[in-house]
Design goal:
The protein has helices spanning 3-18, 23-30, 34-41, 48-57, 61-92, 97-111, 126-138, 159-170, 207-220, and strands at residues 119-123, 147-154, 181-183, 199-204. The chain is α+β, with helices and mostly antiparallel strands and 223 residues long. The protein has 2 domains: 3-90, no CATH class; 97-220, 60s Ribosomal Protein L30, Chain: A (2-Layer Sandwich), CATH 3.30.1330. The longest helix has 32 residues, at 61-92.
Length: 223
């Protein structure tokens, strides 16, 4: 079998698994080995509803037991996740003004533009963008009219919807958005997380502010 043919079968198997089909059902439909299907879909987690559906369709006690065990594991994982998140929030406590300032410096160091030109920060996570917009306004005193925004978006996504989402989140008017950078989507590339609103880049044209931020970074991350 050619590489393209094998890749197509893998994509089909993953799609069927996401719909809740069992490995055996996928094997029968695609006429491939069970071991291949298991390998292709091993990282896909089924929802509780999908697992219950598989459970109700099975007749062998052994397989029923495996489904019940999987449901118990999901519940235990969810409970542990909630517990750790609660603990993390409690341990963080209330952030002081300086805490937020240092956090912004660290975030810019990680995701901001370092070249001696414009201040620019890019991210796909709305929480990161919201925090950095507040940081730029509060600590950098950036005037509202100086903010510019641009999108990095795959061609199968809705540009208008994405712009409206980011404009509302950042409070940057659509008139201050620059041309979107459209990237051709690769349907054969498997993605665990799909950013439906793309990656947002916030830019402020201010060389002196950029140099000051570089100074803050040097002050925080001294060698």
């Amino acid at each position: 079998m050619s590489y393209a043919g094998k890749l197509e079968l893998k994509l089909q198997a993953r799609d069927l698994r996401k719909k809740g089909l069992s490995v055996k059902e996928i094997q029968k439909r695609l006429k491939v080995s069970k071991s291949s299907v298991s390998l292709w879909v091993r990282d896909i987690r089924l929802t509780k509803k999908q697992l219950r559906k598989l459970y109700s369709n099975q007749r062998t006690g052994a397989l029923k037991g495996s489904i019940i065990a999987a449901l118990h594991k999901i519940r235990a994982r969810e409970e542990l996740t909630r517990k750790l998140i609660r603990e993390g929030i409690k341990e963080t406590g209330n952030l002081s003004k300086r805490d937020k300032f240092i956090a912004g410096v660290a975030m810019y160091f990680a995701e901001g533009s370092k070249g001696d030109k414009n201040v620019a920060f890019s991210n796909s996570d709305p929480r990161a963008i919201r925090f950095m917009m507040g940081w730029l306004r509060k600590f950098c005193k950036v005037p509202e009219m100086k903010f510019r925004a641009s999108l990095y978006l795959h061609d199968n996504l809705n540009e208008r919807k994405a712009k409206q989402f980011w404009s509302k989140l950042t409070q940057v008017p659509l008139t201050q958005f620059k041309k979107t950078y459209i990237v051709k989507n690769n349907p054969h590339r498997l993605r665990k997380v799909k950013h439906i609103y793309g990656v947002l880049r916030i830019t402020v044209s201010d060389v002196n502010l950029h140099r000051k931020i570089m100074g803050w970074i040097s002050g925080v991350f001294k060698l």
